[in-house]
């Protein structure tokens, strides 16, 4: 490039290279108005050779030097450069190469500058460019004031607006004299304020043993300083400068500290960059150094944090247990709390919430402990026993004291007067399928709680054992063993009486008696089944049940020892009467064994003392009867009868 001709305008004390320049090609064949600028630069080319390109039959081609194909050129055409780089612009003549010429062109990437506009007191703003991609930066405040140009090494400016409002600030890059001012601007809003407001911390949370998170609400275009005090709320150090161009809830996580050994207090200062001072400060919010330790039957919570003050407006504490807040809240002066509502062997997770005005909270690190107890668990108080109908199995059930968390129950069974472990279970019931009603076995229950403490043995629980017998007159006597196993004892016994088809015939309140005589007249039901129910004085306890006892009455028959067949209407025939008979066969024999009479009808007319139409002599005769009862059993009965002739 042989040279340039420029007219430079200087206004006041502010630098301005805006003017008019012409740059001459290497061999002075053409001139251009620009040789440097940002992408998108338009360069006007003027030819210095006559006849000029596009006139007098002269045909020219422009070569951009950036890889694009050459284009026909007419004097005064515009060459546009869309990409960044260093190129050689050429003009090629059609008639002679002597007039060919070129000029170097430098194109810079056209990027909007990165900058931050800060609000200040007194309607001032401070603008800071945060990059150095350009040699100079031009500030435009969009309020009809003159633009300001600053070099990259000091690209900061302060400007005062007339009134408070939201304004737009534009900044564009410029590479100084000899370059086109065609770089794109970046425009950002800034809040112009008479007085900068204080920030507000919304939450502090201890995330783990090394990290604490601080959330606070920010106003747009304000520069903040996050301050930290270790184990105090009076002496602070600056941790970080924070800026957000828009209103937002900002989150800052402070790593590599020790919140499980110390407490940390946080304050957010609103910084005034125009005056290089703190314009306002947020209320202080502190973390808590929180610990939990399990003790016998209680979990002890302790913590440490800064004392409440005007600058540190701590109001109260809330203990959160397994994600549920405990009530009431605790005074801000407290530093310890004991939780006695715990169950041995159960894990609990605690967190302490520090409460500040405006629903601001500081959350401690959660701590988990497992409660323990060295207390001897209370013995099982009430055991119920239900024997199955056959009397070869018994189900035991009991109530666990809710104050103790049982891990495993041991069922003890008496064998020949001594107790030995029968089995273990984690449930509050157990079925012993090796039980026998006639064995006289009793049970005790012992358990180990979640802290491996062993309870005392329970009361002895002896299942109801029901027995009975049938008297000769078919009266039934039943009796049962007294039920033991309930602390409050038995209130009463009930007897349920069923027939052979399982139909309930009668319910009898036996009171505190352990026997019952059933001598009622019943010619229909031969088979009875009895069950005893024991009810506790404590109405919340499940009843105990005996085995089912089946009693079968005998199919007795009744007959006279003599009869007088004289047709006087009195005792003229020999007849047998019976109970529960379904089938009947009877024969009557004389002393020589000859059958005098036979019948299958117990309800028939009976023997009238004759054989083949003749009245038999007085004397002793024998009857033999075969009887089948309601249960299908067959019995043999026989006896002597005396035939009397009576006139």
UniProtKB/TrEMBL annotation:
**What single Pfam family name could you report for this chain, choosing any that match?**
CHU_C
Give the transmembrane region(s). none
Q: Which NCBIfam families match?
A: Bac_Flav_CTERM
Protein name as it appears in the record:
Gliding motility-associated C-terminal domain-containing protein
The record lists the organism as Ohtaekwangia koreensis
């Amino acid at each position: 490039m042989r040279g340039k001709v420029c007219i430079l305008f200087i206004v006041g004390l502010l630098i301005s290279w805006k003017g008019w320049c012409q740059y001459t090609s290497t061999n002075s064949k053409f001139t251009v108005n620009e040789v440097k600028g940002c992408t998108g630069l338009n360069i006007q080319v003027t030819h210095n050779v006559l006849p000029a390109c596009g006139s007098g039959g002269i045909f020219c081609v422009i070569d951009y030097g950036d890889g694009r194909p050459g284009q026909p050129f007419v004097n005064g055409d515009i060459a546009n450069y869309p990409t960044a780089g260093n190129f050689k612009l050429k003009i090629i003549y059609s008639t002679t190469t002597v007039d060919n010429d070129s000029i170097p062109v430098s194109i810079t990437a056209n990027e909007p500058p990165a900058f931050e506009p800060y609000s200040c007191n007194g309607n001032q703003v401070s603008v800071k460019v945060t990059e150095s991609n350009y040699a100079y930066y031009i500030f435009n405040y969009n309020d009809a004031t003159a633009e300001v140009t600053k070099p990259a090494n000091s690209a900061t400016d302060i400007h005062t607006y007339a009134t408070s409002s939201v304004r737009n600030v534009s900044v564009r890059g410029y590479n100084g004299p000899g370059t086109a001012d065609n770089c794109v601007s970046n425009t950002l809003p800034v809040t112009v304020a008479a007085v900068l407001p204080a920030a507000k911390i919304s939450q502090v949370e201890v995330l783990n043993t090394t990290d604490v998170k601080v959330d606070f609400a920010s106003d747009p275009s304000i520069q903040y300083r996050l301050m930290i005090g270790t184990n105090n709320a009076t002496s602070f150090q600056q941790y970080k400068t924070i800026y957000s161009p828009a209103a937002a809830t900002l989150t800052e996580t402070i790593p590599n500290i020790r919140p499980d050994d110390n407490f940390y207090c946080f304050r957010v200062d609103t910084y005034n960059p125009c005056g290089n001072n703190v314009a306002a400060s947020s209320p202080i919010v502190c973390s808590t150094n929180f610990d939990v330790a399990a003790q016998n039957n209680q979990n002890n919570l302790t913590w440490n944090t800064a004392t409440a003050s005007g600058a540190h407006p701590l109001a109260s504490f809330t203990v959160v247990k397994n994600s549920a807040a405990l009530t009431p809240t605790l005074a801000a002066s407290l530093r310890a709390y004991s939780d006695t509502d715990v169950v041995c062997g159960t894990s609990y997770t605690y967190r302490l919430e520090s409460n500040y005005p405006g629903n601001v909270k500081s959350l401690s690190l959660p701590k988990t402990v497992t409660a323990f107890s060295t207390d001897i668990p209370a013995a099982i108080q009430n055991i119920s026993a239900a024997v199955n109908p056959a009397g070869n199995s018994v189900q035991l059930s009991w109530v666990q004291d809710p104050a103790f968390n049982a891990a495993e129950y041991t069922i003890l069974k008496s064998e020949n007067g001594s107790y030995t472990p029968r089995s273990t279970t984690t449930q509050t019931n157990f079925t012993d399928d090796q039980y026998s009603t006639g064995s006289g076995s009793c049970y005790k229950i012992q358990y180990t709680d979640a802290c491996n403490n062993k309870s005392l043995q329970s009361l002895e629980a002896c299942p109801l054992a029901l027995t009975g017998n049938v008297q000769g007159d078919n009266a039934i006597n039943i009796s049962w063993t007294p039920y033991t196993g309930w602390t409050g004892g038995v209130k009463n016994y009930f007897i349920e009486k069923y027939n052979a088809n399982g139909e309930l015939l009668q319910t009898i309140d036996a009171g505190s008696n352990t026997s019952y005589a059933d001598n009622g007249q019943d010619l229909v039901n031969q088979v009875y089944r009895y069950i005893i129910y024991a009810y506790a004085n404590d109405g919340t306890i499940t009843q105990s049940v005996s085995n089912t006892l089946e009693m079968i009455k005998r199919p007795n028959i009744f007959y006279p020892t003599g009869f007088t067949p004289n047709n006087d209407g009195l005792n003229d025939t020999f007849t047998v009467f019976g109970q529960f008979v379904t089938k009947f066969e009877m024969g009557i024999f004389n002393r020589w064994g000859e059958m005098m009479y036979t019948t299958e009808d117990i309800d028939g007319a009976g023997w009238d003392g004759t054989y083949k139409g003749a009245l038999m002599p007085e004397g002793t005769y024998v009857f033999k009867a075969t009887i089948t009862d309601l249960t299908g059993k067959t019995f043999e009965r026989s006896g002597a009868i005396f035939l009397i002739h009576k006139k």
